[in-house]
Structure formats: C-alpha cells, structure tokens
Design a protein that fits this description.
alpha+beta; globular; 8 strands; Lipocalin; 155 residues; Lipoprotein; 8-stranded antiparallel barrel
Length: 155
C-alpha cells in the first residue's frame, strides 16, 4: 500500500482541522463555566468544618463523637505518670477493668470518669485520631490510648 502525503491546503483538510480545533476549544472551555452570577468561582470546601468532622474548634472530639467511638469499645493505654490501663466502656455507662467497675458519662464535649476511690468524677477533653485517643485536662495531655473494637478481654 502506498502512502500519499495529505494536502493540508485542500479545503476538506482545513475543515477537518478546524473542526478538531473547535472541538478541543469547546472541551477546554466547558470546565470553566460558572453558574454563580456573582462572577466569583464556585467555592467548595476541601476540608469539612470542625463540627462536621466531629471535633470542637480546638481539635478535641465532640460529645457525640466520643460516645460514638468509645461506647461499646475497649481503650488500652497509659495515664500520667505511667500507669497502664485497659478498660471496656459499656454503652450503659459502666467501665469494666480487669478487677474493677466504675462509671463514665459525657458532659458537654468531655468524658467523665467516676471511680469509687475518687471524691468526684474527673472530666477530660478527648482527642481522637483514627484509633488513637488522648485524654486532656486543663490543656495538658494526661494519658494516651488505643481504641480496640468491642470487649476482647471479656470484662
């Protein structure tokens, strides 16, 4: 088969080239449209607001997020100064450890712990990142832990 050069000066070649250029221009401009009459580009938030992400403005978990992530699960970690813990937080507000029971509640955006030996409940702001938990009191990290699904220790 013999290849013949294309005459780009022929009217049919110019029409085909012009149609291709016009189609490419239309595709390029299609993404530039804006239905907003203000003349400003459409604004989309790439990051959800803190409240939508289940966090307070200071990056701590909301009460609803704390309940959703902690209730019915176990947290294993350490509290300052270096005391290890593993506790199951039952949905009914009961804390179960290896050899004890206590109570937990949510007050606002804080999780409160009521152990029998304490004169009153201690309430902590909670930072949750994936399965990592930090317990904060007066702006200081008091402990850290890992959320483990369910009650694997059968407390």
């Amino acid at each position: 088969m013999t290849a013949y050069p294309i005459d780009t000066h022929a009217p049919s070649a110019r029409r085909a080239g012009g149609a291709i250029a016009l189609a490419a221009l239309m595709l390029a401009l299609a993404g530039c449209g804006n239905s907003d009459d203000s003349g400003q580009a459409n604004k989309t938030d790439s990051e959800p607001s803190a409240a939508a992400a289940g966090q307070t403005e200071n990056g701590m978990a909301t009460g609803a997020t704390i309940r959703k992530r902690i209730a019915g699960n176990t947290v294993a970690g350490t509290m300052a100064p270096d005391s290890a813990y593993t506790e199951f937080y039952a949905a009914d507000g009961t804390i179960r450890g290896a050899s004890y029971e206590a109570k937990w509640t949510i007050e606002g955006d804080r999780m409160c712990f009521d152990y029998d030996e304490a004169p009153e409940a201690d309430c902590y702001a909670v930072k949750i990142d994936g399965n990592s938990v930090e317990w904060h009191l007066d702006g200081e990290t008091q402990g850290k832990g890992t959320i483990v699904e369910g009650n694997p220790n059968n407390f």
